[in-house]
Amino acid sequence: MATLEIRDLHVSVEAENGPREILRGVDLTVKQGETHAIMGPNGSGKSTLAYSIAGHPKYTVTGGTVTLDGEDVLSMSVDERARAGLFLAMQYPVEVAGVSVSNFLRTAATAVRGEAPKLRLWVKEVKEAMERLQMDPSFAERNVNEGFSGGEKKRHEILQLELLKPKIAVLDETDSGLDVDALRIVSEGVNRVRDTGEIGTLLITHYTRILRYIKPDHVHVFAGGKIVESGGPELADKLEAEGYEAYTGVKETA
Amino acid sequence: MASANNSGSTTAGSIAVREAGAPDELAGPGTGRMVSQPADARQVAVASYDVADFPVPNGREEDWRFTPLDRLRGLHDGTFGNVGEAAVEVEAPAGVVVETVGRDDARVGKAGAPVDRVAAQAYSAFEKATVVTFPKELAPGEPVVVRTRGTGTTGFGHLTVSVEAFAEAVVVLEHTGKAVYADNVEFLVADGARLTVISVQDWEDGSVHLAHQVARLGRDATFKSVAVTLGGDVVRLFPRVVYDAPGGDASLYGVYFADSGQHLEHRLFVDHDVPRCRSLVTYKGALQGAEARTVWIGDVLIRAAAEGTDTYELNRNLLLTDGARADSVPNLEIETGEIAGAGHASATGRFDDEQLFYLQARGIPADEARRLVVRGFFAEVIAQIGLPELQERLMARIEAELEASV
Ligand SMILES: Nc1ncnc2c1ncn2[C@@H]1O[C@H](COP(=O)(O)OP(=O)(O)OP(=O)(O)O)[C@@H](O)[C@H]1O
Ligand SMILES: [Mg+2]
């Protein structure tokens, strides 16, 4: 059973006046089949955690470990991590001019699966996945994320999740910028993947709204660069009612 | 692509607007008329068929200041070595007339006089010209391919492509082999005619090529050119467009890829001196390796008579490694207030790390991610060629160039 283990993770970014520590000792274990929600106010370091797991070059790990089934994730390149079974649905997906979605998806699937998917099966697979996410087929011919609305970008992220079938998925604010319909469609996509029982999900969010669609097994409160409280789904209800004030001293709704 | 400028590049664009109603000087390079008042976008003061009318450039002139004169093998000062014939071979579909003519043929030199010493040198020295004619209303559907193959000597060439009224033509110019070569190419696009030209410069190492390509557009004529410059030590291409009557439409595209030690220069001049014409310029370049050098100059002049002109030019450069240097200078000079649109954009940047991260985060290895991004960068320009087989071949060549650095 795939397990992502994060131990005492410290991460810095290069700020104008030298390195600035953002993550200050994160401990977390996510197993295949589980769903963990990480909830925290703006600027608490949620995206930093997501990017650090994926290996973004902007973030420097200054201490701690991250392993996937015992393998040292931190020594892997970004693409090695993805091929090892990690997936990051980004808060702000990147536009790639001149690269079509269909070419991008096929190249990614080929890399992750270790061989090019059979063309006819692949075309069908993509078409059906897009239909389920109510994405117009014309998206396949558009450039990656170019001119996509916020909601379209998030659907495209979940489309990749469905096609690449990772062991552990980190979803960074997949709910932000979505209207109710889109939130439901995207959540259903995540749930389809979860229902296979073959994925561990780390759902990062600021608001409890998405948790009505995607039920977490564990909820963690993230503040000041680390997990400050962990519990079951009831913790989300508490955050919903009380906000983050108890953790940050600042009134902010969840 | 990150659009920030950085130390490996310069971008110095200018838009100069002269008062409407200021004296109109209908003259300039390629118009066959002398410039009485040189202005920024006019670049040069002389246009002549005779090399003797041009002083030997010393490198301080505006139009030579980016060019490494010491690497031109004497094309600019008459000290060039052995002159031989470059092999020119033309493949043409039925109906197209291909001729080899002498210097005195009336169709040679019609697009206008050379505007710099090397072009005049080529004009003064060539012995046989190739003339390709698309008779009135002919639309062969297949391209004409003109292959110029260097054989290791110095060569001077002349090509005239004449597309008669309402004919539709596609011409591919291929430059390969090893040569020190200077030539003039004329495109005469008559009323209502359409011409697409793809000019591929893929010389062997050690080659030098200086080319002037002038398009003269008739009423409602459409001209599209795609310059693809990949191989050669020094390549300096000078595409120009002049309009004879309203309604002309010119689109100039280009891609170039410079490796260490290459100097690839494109200087464009679009001379709007009749009303209601259009020009669109899109050039993209990539550079890799120390000493890789590219120059792009985009001069667009909208004269007082050219009311209703619509123009836009864009140049983007992708620096793949440190040490490379891209110079990009768009100049737009406007002498009438009555234009439909005018603008330019220029950006030089490095690989966008966020794009690479995104692709890698989906399992795509770094070198393949770079390939995808570079392919994507050039794709819109390459797609303008419209000949799938050639497009694929050129993309593969570009990827091979890229491979050399990864
Ligand atoms: N390059 C940088 N220089 C300085 N500070 C930075 C830099 N990058 C990130 N930070 C800071 O790190 C902190 C954590 O940022 P992060 O994006 O991880 O927060 P987040 O919890 O995801 O916030 P949000 O809810 O807004 O998405 C913020 O205070 C941010 O300003
Ligand atoms: Mg964030």
UniProtKB/TrEMBL annotation, chain A:
<dbReference type="InterPro" id="IPR003439">
    <property type="entry name" value="ABC_transporter-like_ATP-bd"/>
</dbReference>
<dbReference type="GO" id="GO:0005524">
    <property type="term" value="F:ATP binding"/>
</dbReference>
<dbReference type="Pfam" id="PF00005">
    <property type="entry name" value="ABC_tran"/>
</dbReference>
<keyword id="KW-0067">ATP-binding</keyword>
<keyword id="KW-0547">Nucleotide-binding</keyword>
<dbReference type="GO" id="GO:0016887">
    <property type="term" value="F:ATP hydrolysis activity"/>
</dbReference>
<dbReference type="InterPro" id="IPR003593">
    <property type="entry name" value="AAA+_ATPase"/>
</dbReference>
<dbReference type="InterPro" id="IPR027417">
    <property type="entry name" value="P-loop_NTPase"/>
</dbReference>
<dbReference type="InterPro" id="IPR010230">
    <property type="entry name" value="FeS-cluster_ATPase_SufC"/>
</dbReference>
<comment type="similarity">
    <text>Belongs to the ABC transporter superfamily. Ycf16 family.</text>
</comment>
<feature type="domain" description="ABC transporter">
    <location>
        <begin position="4"/>
        <end position="249"/>
    </location>
</feature>
<protein>
    <submittedName>
        <fullName>Fe-S cluster assembly ATPase SufC</fullName>
    </submittedName>
</protein>
From TrEMBL, chain B:
<feature type="domain" description="SUF system FeS cluster assembly SufBD core">
    <location>
        <begin position="149"/>
        <end position="377"/>
    </location>
</feature>
<dbReference type="GO" id="GO:0016226">
    <property type="term" value="P:iron-sulfur cluster assembly"/>
</dbReference>
<protein>
    <submittedName>
        <fullName>Fe-S cluster assembly protein SufD</fullName>
    </submittedName>
</protein>
<dbReference type="InterPro" id="IPR055346">
    <property type="entry name" value="Fe-S_cluster_assembly_SufBD"/>
</dbReference>
<dbReference type="Pfam" id="PF01458">
    <property type="entry name" value="SUFBD_core"/>
</dbReference>
<dbReference type="InterPro" id="IPR000825">
    <property type="entry name" value="SUF_FeS_clus_asmbl_SufBD_core"/>
</dbReference>
<comment type="similarity">
    <text>Belongs to the iron-sulfur cluster assembly SufBD family.</text>
</comment>
<feature type="compositionally biased region" description="Polar residues">
    <location>
        <begin position="1"/>
        <end position="13"/>
    </location>
</feature>
<dbReference type="InterPro" id="IPR011542">
    <property type="entry name" value="SUF_FeS_clus_asmbl_SufD"/>
</dbReference>
<dbReference type="InterPro" id="IPR037284">
    <property type="entry name" value="SUF_FeS_clus_asmbl_SufBD_sf"/>
</dbReference>
<feature type="region of interest" description="Disordered">
    <location>
        <begin position="1"/>
        <end position="36"/>
    </location>
</feature>
